[in-house]
Design a protein that fits this description.
This protein is an all-alpha fold. It is built from two helices and no strands. The longest helix has 19 residues. It starts with a helix and ends in a 7-residue tail after the last helix.
Length: 66
């Protein structure tokens, strides 16, 4: 009789362990903030453009205006 009671107890414990089945975990997406650059970063490109234009103007000789 003890074996039957032990078997019944083990079978009940085994069924509750697998009651939910296998479910994939739900993970929240990570929020990643982009690193911001300094305010001087927006002025570098226009300054480089001005330097290129100034170099182009200064490299053109005065021979074109004869």
């Amino acid at each position: 009789m003890k074996k039957i009671a032990l078997a019944a107890a083990l079978s009940l414990a085994a069924t509750t362990a697998f009651a939910g089945g296998v479910v994939e975990p739900v993970m929240e997406p990570e929020v990643v903030e982009a690193a911001t650059s300094s305010s001087a970063g927006g002025i570098i490109v226009p300054l480089l453009l001005l330097l290129v234009i100034a170099a182009a103007v200064s490299s053109s000789g005065g021979d074109n205006f004869k």
